[in-house]
Amino acid sequence: ETGVTQTPRHLVMGMTNKKSLKCEQHLGHNAMYWYKQSAKKPLELMFVYSLEERVENNSVPSRFSPECPNSSHLFLHLHTLQPEDSALYLCASSQDQMGASYNEQFFGPGTRLTVL
Amino acid sequence: GENVEQHPSTLSVQEGDSAVIKCTYSDSASNYFPWYKQELGKRPQLIIDIRSNVGEKKDQRIAVTLNKTAKHFSLHITETQPEDSAVYFCAASIGDSSYKLIFGSGTRLLVRP
């Protein structure tokens, strides 16, 4: 597989379930991101990891918990979600060069999450 | 807080015509402005970007202009084709962050054959 992959592609869960989304990048990048895409807010940044350290958390509810065990893998752990959390969750990666020019973010195909 | 506004939300043009999408941003420290294209059911992909040290950048039928004084930037697509139909997102960097982007709300472009 090349690029950025995400599993599962579709997920239906109840409000009491615990599930995890997985992202893997094969581009040798050192920064990874979680975005939420919904009709209300088309592309909303949730978390950023650079060099495996979380550097950005845009006040996302604690029912979303990210984990970045290494520079190629990123997880989003979900528990006690609400129906309004139903959305497409996109992972992205880039090569972060601190203090240097910005770099393209490559997106994964997303996980379509439905919370019942 | 930081904000990026994008207009129009939908745009329908005849094949061969030009399409223009406009964005405004609020953070005067923003210095990176990418544009992403998302086809139906697919992931967003970068199509062009511009940095604050230039006013215009062109890549074949696509061009982006930036007016830092007015905090405006625009995407121009000339000689539109049906395969240009997609949702287009503008974005602006937040301050001096090298990776934090704020996205606009998207423009759904339909190119009629």
N-to-C CA distance of chain A: 32 Å
Tell me the β content of chain A.
Answer: over 45%
Shape of chain B: globular
Major beta sheet summary of chain B:
6 strands, mixed
Low-pLDDT regions of chain B: none
Order of helices and strands of chain B: EEEEEEEEEEE
Binned strand content of chain B? over 45%
List the SSEs and their pairings.
The complex is a heterodimer of chains A (116) and B (113).
Chain A: E1 4-7, E2 10-13, E3 18-25, E4 31-37, E5 44-50, E6 53-57, E7 64-70, E8 73-79, E9 87-94, E10 106-107, E11 111-115
Parallel strand pairs in A: 2-11
Antiparallel strand pairs in A: 1-3, 3-8, 4-5, 4-9, 5-6, 7-8, 9-10, 9-11
Chain B: E1 4-7, E2 10-14, E3 19-25, E4 32-38, E5 45-51, E6 56-59, E7 62-67, E8 72-77, E9 86-93, E10 101-103, E11 107-112
Parallel strand pairs in B: 2-11
Antiparallel strand pairs in B: 1-3, 3-8, 4-5, 4-9, 6-7, 7-8, 9-10, 9-11
Supply database-style keywords.
heterodimer, A: 116 residues, mainly beta, seven-stranded mixed beta sheet, B: 113 residues, five-stranded antiparallel beta sheet, globular
